[in-house]
Amino acid sequence: MPDTLTAIPTSSRACINDVLLLALLHEDVPHGDLTTDSLPLLQRAGDITFHARGALRLSGIEAAARLLVLCGASAEAVCVSGNDVADGALLLRGHGPAPALLRGWKVAQTLVEFMSGIATATAAIVSAVRGAGFGCPVACTRKNAPGTRALSAQAVRDGGGVMHRLGLSETLLVFPEHRALMASGDWPASLVALQAGQPEKRVVVEVGSAEAALEAARAGAEVLQLERFTPEALAALRQALRVAGLPVRLAPAGGVTKANAVAYAAAGADLLVTSSPYFAPPAEVKVTLVSH
């Protein structure tokens, strides 16, 4: 495999570089391909193609092509991530030594299926909300499978969503769990101090009731993350905040899916926070290898 650490094409719009891709290959081929290396394939060459099995929102195809290149083959993405593709569409083609194609085949296929599954599910939520006439962003949480943050975040973007937060170093989000570990007298003064200490950041507070929401808003919360609120409860809270003169943004979280996203948007949500795309079925990609 090449040992250069070159970023994949900018059309992927991701921080997915050769360090990550080589790690994926090393996980699957840590000490060579025992089967391929034991067969009379060293002097053989072939062609590889990827086709969509079913309509999908494509993601990860540039990374898949780069994976094959890292294995010693030539490959190019025919379609661009972030676009909808039809059943049967040609996504990628490549050629090269048989061992190189076989080394990268399954990792590349799985990567595209995994990322396109997330992108397709994200796009379905975004499409439902936009189709109903609402513009609130669809934001995915950091509840992706550990170790897949860069891949999952890119898939969300390819689906038309945004990331809620990429990690604990990025944003201020106070959970009830934080408050549970504070001294009893530290709330809500600590929220005021948090805002003063990090003035360039919005203070987001997760709440589980209307009472907690109003208390946090009065203490200076700028965004309320509403854990398991129904759309009806969100609408009632929006009215209560309006009456109290508290211009706080509302972000329902926990249980937001394609089935209820429009209801939350209609109830007055400013942002939809969801983890559901990470648990969607992977897309299906057909890979064909033929002797060259």
UniProtKB/TrEMBL annotation:
Q: Its encoding gene is what?
A: modD
The record ties this protein, via NCBIfam families, to: modD (TIGR01334)
Official protein name in the record:
Putative pyrophosphorylase ModD
Q: Which InterPro entries match?
A: Aldolase_TIM (IPR013785), ModD (IPR006242), NadC/ModD (IPR027277), Nicotinate_pribotase-like_C (IPR036068), Quinolinate_PRibosylTase_N_sf (IPR037128), Quinolinate_PRibosylTrfase_C (IPR002638), Quinolinate_PRibosylTrfase_N (IPR022412)
Which organism's genome codes for this protein? Pelomonas cellulosilytica
List, alphabetically, the PANTHER family matched: NICOTINATE-NUCLEOTIDE PYROPHOSPHORYLASE [CARBOXYLATING], PYROPHOSPHORYLASE MODD-RELATED
Q: Which family does it belong to?
A: Belongs to the NadC/ModD family.
Q: Key word Transferase present in the record?
A: yes
The record places domain Quinolinate phosphoribosyl transferase N-terminal at 33-116
**Where is the Quinolinate phosphoribosyl transferase C-terminal domain positioned along the sequence?**
118-276
**Where on the tree of life does the source sit, at the highest rank?**
Bacteria
Give the lineage.
Answer: Bacteria, Pseudomonadati, Pseudomonadota, Betaproteobacteria, Burkholderiales
Alphabetical list of Pfam families matching this protein: QRPTase_C, QRPTase_N
Task: Provide the alphabetized UniProt keywords.
Answer: Glycosyltransferase, Transferase
